[in-house]
Queue: 3 jobs
Job 1
Amino acid sequence: MLRNTLLLLGSVLVALALCEGYLRTRGSRILPKPDLYQLDPDTGKRMKPGWTGTEFGTAIRINSHGLRSPETPREKADGTFRILALGDSWTFGFRMDEEDSYPRQLERILNERLEARGASGRVEVINSGVIGYSTFQEAAYFRTRGRHYSPDLVIIAFYPVNDAEDKSSRYVRYNRLHEIHPRLLDLYRLPRKLYLRQFIKGARRAVKRRLAELRLSLAEKLSYEDPGAQAIAERDWTQPYRHGDGGWELAQEGIQDIAETARGIGARGLVVLLPDVVDLARYEDLYHPRVAPLVREQVSRTDLDWLDLLDHFRPFRGREEAIRPERRRHPNADGYRLIAEVVANTVERRYLPPELP
């Protein structure tokens, strides 16, 4: 019995190792690279300084400060208007080359306009976006690191699909384990570094949605409502947007925190509400009315400014494929260009000083 048990366990381990090896060689375009990130006591996670490689099939280079941005000294040169772009994967430039990310396109557009009017000054845009960040993490980064760049303007790209998720408990747990012993944390986080775990997690989500669809079909036949199944099947991400939800409370605290940090360094702030480009009709008709008023109300309690991009994305309602890859939640280069142009218009009108040489 012992021999058979050991043989079974050995076979399972070999099979799992083969699956892990296959996913690492074949799954680089659909699975995130676990080694791109490291634990951070303030933000929960951050990108490793100097990391280079590919993420979802796209070349990635992280600078010495842990940002997907050109090397930029903390000291600001004379005649420079500096913008710090806070955000998640939309700011990072998910599946896009760095030059196609909205912060880099924004920098090019503004500098081209300055050059066209004969100005010798320049605009610098620092991309501090990190895949998976929520507003409270962006606020923590700005408070502890981003503020030292002395930005004149901080732009908060608020992506409502997941910016109200509560990830704080996970990172509190990480820090407690790290305080006990770093090796204990490494052991605890080891499964998260496996591609096999990420694949199983994705498959579990797919199965969960399929079961929700079956529940809805049964509910329809039996003439009763199943709001939980409907939310899962329709990928309704608006559930946290209600008073008392932990994720929404953290998002509100993050917005307030960013406003206070900006005020403390004499910077101005702009909150940009990004759309859900998967289905602009559903977003405009169902989700935007639930979410936008709450976010705008919170922003109005601070001295931050507000920019809602829905009006600018509305022309692509029903033809979303023009601004995003097929079946993707993120924009393509043209979609990021649209964001950059709208934000550039706002920056030029509201924030660029007329005395910029």
Note: The chain is about 50% helix and 15% strand.
Job 2
Amino acid sequence: MKQKRVLIIIFIIVILFLITVFQTFRFLSGSSSIGEKVAVLDIRGIITKSDATIKLIHAYRDDPNVKAIILRINTPGGSVAPVQEIYRELTKLDKPIVASMASTAASGGYYIACAADTIVANPGTLTGSIGVILQFTKLRGLLDKVGVEHQVIKSGKFKDAGSMFRDMSEEDIAILQETVDDVYNQFVDAISESRNDTLTRDEIVQLADGRIFTGQQALTHKLIDKLGNLQDAIIVAGELGNIEGTPKVLRKERRTSLLEQLIGIEHNPHLDEILNFSGVTFRYELSLGN
């Protein structure tokens, strides 16, 4: 019995060792190829954090073999601050950037795409949704029915504006609307800075009412530059990076944890959002039917 237990432990150790070796080989094979390259930076899922993405931006910035960067965007957007942090770091780069929109590059996804020199989308890509959303849940009616009373002691009359335990006053709504409008204008300003050679600010405002566009419609409205898939974007990036011939592609995938590999689960951005809930946030996010 003891010998069998020892064999099981040895087997587990060997499996863990092989997984570690495989991860190391995959990382090295993806990052050490020689020659001029185009780097693909994946931005996918609901954007709740920026640290990992910015770390990759800096890695590609500092790699002399990376001559251009492709933003492979597949996201409905997310929280305002992480979106703006990613956008700002991209605008600091002195390397060409091409945005390649996958199935969805809406709201905050489009915001980030505006950091690119060229935006490429599929005809059926879902994009646009330019705007800001601030949502609240109201429980007052339910609490009244079950006889639960909520009391608040606050330092100012607007400290609990948007509370789920009371109705918002007209002053509350006015204050929050003013703040949402300010964040919205920051979005429009970013687009205007990026697309000023094709669109005026007034034209952008006409399109920035929260509506969604297909890639084909976005091209018609000059929100993107051309239609195409990732392979087309790679060719464009190679040309902008002055790479001769077919460019090599560097793409560092998110490294799955040992626990994820052993039990077969995958990273879930929705779970991140729940675990990192920080109260009310402004969101550059596509919101259909919510």
Note: The CA atoms of residues 259 and 275 lie 18 Å apart.
Job 3
Amino acid sequence: MDHSASNFLPRSKAAEHSLRELADGGSPREVRPMTIIGIAGASGAGKSLLARLLYERLSVGRRAEDIGILNEDSYYRDRSDLSLAEREKINYDHPDALEHDLLIEHLIELKQGRAVDVPQYNYALHNRSPETVSLVPPKLLILEGILILHVAALAERLDLRVFVDVPMDVCLTRRLRRDIQQRGRQLESVLRQYETSVRPMFYKFIEPSKSHADLIVPRGGENKPALEVLMAHLEGVLTQADEAVPVQA
């Protein structure tokens, strides 16, 4: 079997047609081609580490606007209508907790060459922050999140679908360390959330979405051979984008 990096580029009808969506009827605009790689997997699997390593290594010698990174967590719904106690009871691992329609809209806008205002999320308060961060359309966008392969309308917009496959006991250990040290959570709260929502939702929604992946990566960002394969492929994608002539949208 040929394991060259070029074999990991899937064919997506959504990718072919996305530049024609949201037409505004105005004069044609020049749009740079944009490739989207999606990294999915369980909470604590190492998605963020893999995304960060790819971003940091691919950014060397490039302009800041060439590569972007986007987290599905930014699209947790604004629940300002609820008290903190009520927000703590929400199942944040269920697809309904996320505003995927807005995320899809933003991907379409970026493909069209338009910047978007990405929401920001406060994990300690379990709510969306009032601030947003502007994201200009990059040549390569790295999108990571637990449910991005479960939502069909979202998965089909990804040019490369990656699933990070790590045992759940390892994910729990990583999640405990992250939520307590980085997100200001309490041990009891993290364990309760893991038992009532994280683990059951993984088996209901996330684990089945692995079948939609083009590439499965055991051990996440710690898998150096897989990281090198992805690096080689994405460097090729960026080189092609450098040479591509902008299209008229």
Note: The CA atoms of residues 22 and 112 lie 8 Å apart.
